[in-house]
Each structure stands twice: as structure tokens, then as C-alpha cells.
Write a structure and sequence with these properties.
- By secondary structure, the chain is α+β, with helices and mostly antiparallel strands.
- The protein has 3 domains: 364 residues, Alkaline Phosphatase, subunit A; 71 residues, Arylsulfatase, C-terminal domain; 127 residues, Jelly Rolls.
- It is 23% helix and 22% strand.
- A 10-stranded mixed β-sheet has the order 7-6-5-4-8-1-9-11-2-12, sandwiched between helices. Strands 18, 20, 22, 23, 25 and 26 form a 6-stranded mixed β-sheet that branches.
- A hairpin with a 3-residue loop joins strand 16 and strand 17.
- Helix 6 crosses helix 7.
Length: 581
């Protein structure tokens, strides 16, 4: 009988709605909030005595909380898995740069399903799964989009000079200037969208850029932490979270005013372990007296294969759906579970050929754990062009963590992963090793695939390429604007697909068109496959153009800016490619 109570509450809620409105209850709205680099320990209610997060704490108290919820250790992979319900590596995403953050164009996203199901769909904030057609959010099911380039404000693909305050973002693909702090802007625009669509079901993916570095925030939010002895960077990090917390409260208050709060599935999570909530050796505040941060007793932070790199908060609130408030769910769960969960709650059709890795959380959320399977899940942090096997990996069960193919931790007895017990449990090691081997074998087709950027399409012509998507043999690319501004002697290859045979014009720059500087070179070259063009660069030129006749098909594209005087050569960090009439 106890397992039936949530279902009974859901039926009663439906009857009340029918009696009140004379019709079937409307489908729930969905708001999915994903913060960037906020760890499990960066919330007061999880035991952090320094940070102030009253709105997150309140949401925690009113939600079902998953206390054994896992993501990838870095951001692009988590977002790919979250939006597809499939392990990120299957989707072509296992890195945050080097063309390995591009979500394969044949993947179906959560937004695709919601849009096909009659929902209005919107993204506000971070995307980080491709900046060119057909990889942009507006190509992947989102009707309304406000975003920025790359993986963070101020990174290489972003509008030049953005710094979190009064920035220029891409609004439905076009640059638009906004006043105010970035998080305030994203929540403001989300509220406008919600208000405009309050009478029909909507799906809002609100993915903040905070608290990702650089740690820029108003002194109003960071000063109180510095005054309490928190190191400067961490004080800014906490301040960014506190600002997001205030915006969370503002959003929820408006939902209540609009009468939407109870029938909105409200999901809150982060994308990896903390990036700034723990003082690191050699960094500000790591030695001496003062606050050292809080990581909820876990080992590792962002990028780590240990628990602190990939266990994150997940709160789900939906009163009209019969979800119990204030309940902890300790079963092993992951980001891949959100798509099937929301699809089931919202009555969305999920084609069988999607081959989801995730499992719907609906039974757990409705109080029935009897059918929940014993699971083995996998996480890994890959920073290479081709991922090495076992690197920064974790094989997870409810009890065990098998790390890097050699270490074994009994998590209930050792939540901080300090005592390796592999030698005393060889049977467990053998079993988990075999499960990883099977999983790795299943990834082989994805690892062998290249996600290419099309050139010469009707949807995007010209195409703007940037060096964050270089494939570089040494893994060294300028991924943010400070690095680009230093003009490093770096180069790499873009994996492209020539969509149509024809004559193409290439425009090479050190910086994007909105921030031109003279080229520090005398000769420019472009190589596409076996074809190459070369030209002299006039003194003082901020850009140089070259034309090439190209056949259709896949190719490697590389540029060279050579300086005869210094003997230095580098690639063009920004390249425009246009198919000419």
C-alpha cells in the first residue's frame, strides 16, 4: 500500500484539475537548471557552513533529492549525455575542445523530443556542443536561444571582450547586446519566455555560465566572503553561486505568481565536481589559517575520476505529479537518466532506435524501488584526441568504485576513497574489469568517428571557424581570449565537410572581425586536403583573403600565417569560409 500513495495523490491532483477547469490536466512544464562547475559541497544544505544558498536549500527541502547522482567529470560530456540519454562518448563528445566537444548531428536531443511533442523549447546560457551548423542549439530542437560561443564567457569562440558584465550574446544566432550580469540576463530572458508561453507547455533549459572561471562577480556578492577569511578566488566563486541562488528564488517566485509552480517539473543539477570550492595546493588560501573550502568529504574535484569529480546534486520538484518533498533517494543514478524520466512524465514518444543508456527515474520518484535494477555505471575524463583506455575512469555500483582499472573502494565503508581494497576483493575487481571492457568495446564505433563542420551550406554561409575546434597533435590550443591575445605560435587542423563543390573564399584573422588587429605575418597559406593557396599579406592588414576551388567531401583544413622576418608561423585563430556564387 505505501508504494501506491504517490500514484493516488497524482490521480487526486488530476481530478481536482478536471473539477476546476472542466478538462484534462495540462501537461507539466519543465525547467532544467544546470550550473557550471558547482560541486556537491557548494550548497549550504549539504554541510557547507560558509556559503549562503537559501533558495537552493529551500528547493532541496521541497524536492526529491538524489544523493548518489553522477555526471561526467567535465562539462561538454555531461551536457551531451544529459541531452541525449546516452553516454557522452557515444555521441562524439569526450573532451571540451579539439573538435571533441561537437555533438554528432544524428543524435536526438531532449529538446527535439519536447518540440515534437508540442512543447515550446528554449535554451538560455551555456551550450558547448558546437558553434556551427548543424551543431548549434537552434539546430537541435531549441526554438528560442540565448547563448555564447564555446564553453564559457570570454573563451575563444565568444564575442570578443565579453567579461560577464554588459555582454553581447547570440540571440537566435545573431549578436545582441545586453545590460547587466550574465546570470541575471539569462534568468531575465527565461522569465520573458515563460511569461509569453504560460498558457502552453514549455521546456526551458537554463544552463548558467557560473560559477565557471574566470571568477567575475560583483563585489556585493564576493566581499562578505573575503571578510570572513575566504580566499579571493573562492570568495568570487561563492559570490557567483550566491547570485545564481538569488535568481533561482526570483524565478520560482514568478512561477508561483503565474500559477505555474505546482505543475512545473523543476530540476536542479550541476555538470561536474567543484572547480573553485576547494583550496588547491600552491593556490591562494591553500596554506595557512582560514577557510579551505568544503567538498562533502569526497576525494577529487572537477576533472577527477574520484567521487568529487562526478557526484553532483540533483533535486526534482513536481507537487502536481505526486513527487514526495524532502525525500532522499540513494540509488545509483546518472545524467543519462533525465531524458527517459522527463519523457515518461511528459508523455513524449522516444523512438526505440535511440538506444538510450539511461533508465527512467519515475519508479523511484513515485515511491517504488522494488523494480529498480542493480546497475553498473561508468564515468571517465578524457583530454586526448583519441581516448586512452582506462584513463581517469570510474566503474560504479551501489557499493563499489573501481578506479583507473586498478583501485577498488568500498564506498559505504570508505566514502572518501582512501583505502584501496583491490587486493582483498579480486573477484569484484575481475567482475568490474569485465564490465568496463564490454562498455569500452561498445564505444569503438564512436571513437573511430569524426564529427566534421560543414562548409558551404545554405544554413550557414559564410561559416566562422575558431581555433578551439582545432585538432592538435600536442593537445595545445588557445581556448580562451587571453591566450589568443598572446599570439602563441600554435596551429591545428579543422575537420570539415565541403558541402558543395565550388569556389571558396577564406578570410584569415588573429582576432574576430569585431576586434581587429594587424596580422603579425607576411605570407598567408590555406590548405584543404591536397589543395593549397598562398598570398602575400600587405603591411598593416587586419585580415587576408584567399580563394580555392574545392570538390565536395570530407577534408582537413589548415591555415598558416608565416612571418619571414622572425621565422615564426602560427595558424589563423579565426577563419571565415564562404562559398562564392
Amino acid at each position: 500500500m505505501p508504494t501506491q500513495q504517490p500514484v493516488i495523490r497524482l490521480l487526486l491532483a488530476a481530478l481536482v484539475c478536471v473539477a476546476t477547469h472542466g478538462a484534462e490536466p495540462s501537461r507539466p512544464n519543465v525547467i532544467l537548471i544546470v550550473t557550471d562547475d558547482q560541486g556537491y559541497g557548494d550548497i549550504a544544505v549539504h554541510g557547507n557552513t560558509m556559503i549562503r544558498t537559501p533558495q537552493m536549500d529551500r528547493l532541496h527541502d521541497e524536492s526529491a533529492r538524489f544523493t548518489n547522482f553522477h555526471v561526467d567529470p567535465t562539462c561538454s560530456p555531461t551536457r551531451a549525455a544529459l541531452l541525449t540519454g546516452r553516454y557522452s562518448t557515444r555521441t562524439g563528445v569526450w573532451h571540451t575542445v579539439m573538435g571533441r566537444s561537437l555533438l554528432a548531428p544524428d543524435e536526438t536531443t531532449m529538446a527535439d523530443l519536447f518540440r515534437r511533442g508540442g512543447y515550446r523549447t528554449a535554451l538560455f546560457g551555456k551550450w558547448h556542443l558546437g558553434d556551427n551548423y548543424p551543431l548549434r542549439p537552434q539546430d537541435r530542437g531549441f526554438e528560442e536561444v540565448l547563448t555564447f560561443g564555446g564553453g564559457g564567457i570570454g573563451q575563444t569562440p565568444d564575442f570578443w571582450g565579453n567579461d560577464y558584465f554588459d555582454d553581447t550574446f547570440l540571440h537566435n544566432g545573431k549578436p545582441e547586446s545586453f545590460s547587466g550580469y550574465c546570470t541575471d540576463v539569462f534568468f531575465n530572458q527565461a522569465l520573458h519566455f515563460i511569461e509569453a508561453n504560460k498558457n502552453r507547455p514549455f521546456f526551458v533549459y537554463l544552463a548558467t555560465n557560473v560559477p565557471h572561471s574566470p571568477f567575475n562577480v560583483s563585489d556585493y556578492y564576493s566581499r562578505p566572503y573575503r571578510e570572513r577569511g575566504v580566499p579571493t578566488d573562492m570568495a568570487n566563486f561563492y559570490g557567483m553561486i550566491e547570485n545564481a541562488d538569488a535568481n533561482l528564488g526570483r524565478l520560482r517566485a514568478r512561477l508561483t505568481e503565474l500559477g505555474l509552480a505546482d505543475n512545473t517539473i523543476f530540476v536542479f543539477m550541476s555538470d561536474n565536481g567543484t572547480a573553485g570550492g576547494v583550496a588547491k595546493p600552491g593556490k591562494d588560501g591553500a596554506s595557512g589559517p582560514g577557510w579551505k573550502g568544503f567538498n562533502a568529504g569526497m576525494r577529487g574535484t572537477k576533472g577527477s575520476e574520484y567521487e568529487g569529480g562526478h557526484r553532483d546534486p540533483l533535486f526534482i520538484r513536481w507537487p502536481a505529479g505526486g513527487i514526495d518533498r524532502g525525500r532522499d533517494l540513494r540509488q545509483l543514478t546518472a545524467h543519462i537518466d533525465l531524458l527517459p524520466t522527463l519523457a515518461e512524465f511528459c508523455g513524449l514518444s522516444v523512438p526505440a532506435n535511440l538506444a538510450l543508456d539511461g533508465t527512467s527515474l519515475v519508479p523511484l520518484l513515485r515511491g517504488d524501488a522494488t523494480t529498480w535494477p542493480e546497475r553498473t555505471l561508468f564515468a571517465h575524463a578524457q583530454r586526448k584526441e583519441i581516448p586512452p583506455k582506462w584513463t581517469h575512469s570510474a566503474v560504479m555500483t551501489d557499493r563499489w568504485r573501481f578506479v583507473n582499472g586498478v583501485e577498488l573502494y568500498d564506498l559505504p565503508a570508505d566514502p572518501g576513497e582512501q583505502s584501496d581494497v583491490a587486493s582483498t576483493h579480486p573477484d569484484v575487481v575481475a567482475a568490474l574489469r569485465q564490465r568496463y571492457e564490454s562498455w569500452w568495446t561498445s564505444l569503438a564505433p564512436a571513437l573511430a568517428r569524426q564529427i566534421r563542420i560543414p562548409l558551404g551550406t545554405l544554413a550557414e554561409n559564410p561559416t566562422r571557424l575558431n581555433c578551439m575546434d582545432w585538432h592538435a597533435a600536442d593537445g595545445t590550443i588557445p581556448w580562451d581570449q587571453e591566450q589568443v591575445a598572446a599570439l602563441p605560435a600554435a596551429n591545428g587542423v579543422w575537420k570539415v565537410e565541403i558541402a558543395a563543390a565550388g569556389r571558396y573564399r577564406f578570410t584569415l584573422r588573429h582576432r574576430p572581425a569585431e576586434a581587429p588587429i594587424p596580422l603579425q605575418a607576411t605570407i598567408a597559406r590555406v590548405r584543404v586536403g591536397e589543395r593549397e593557396a598562398k598570398t602575400a599579406i600587405p603591411a598593416g592588414a587586419t585580415a587576408v583573403t584567399l580563394d580555392l576551388n574545392l570538390p565536395a567531401g570530407p577534408a582537413d583544413l589548415q591555415t598558416f600565417l608565416d612571418d619571414k622576418a622572425s621565422g615564426q608561423s602560427r595558424g589563423a585563430f579565426y577563419v571565415g569560409v564562404e562559398l562564392l556564387p
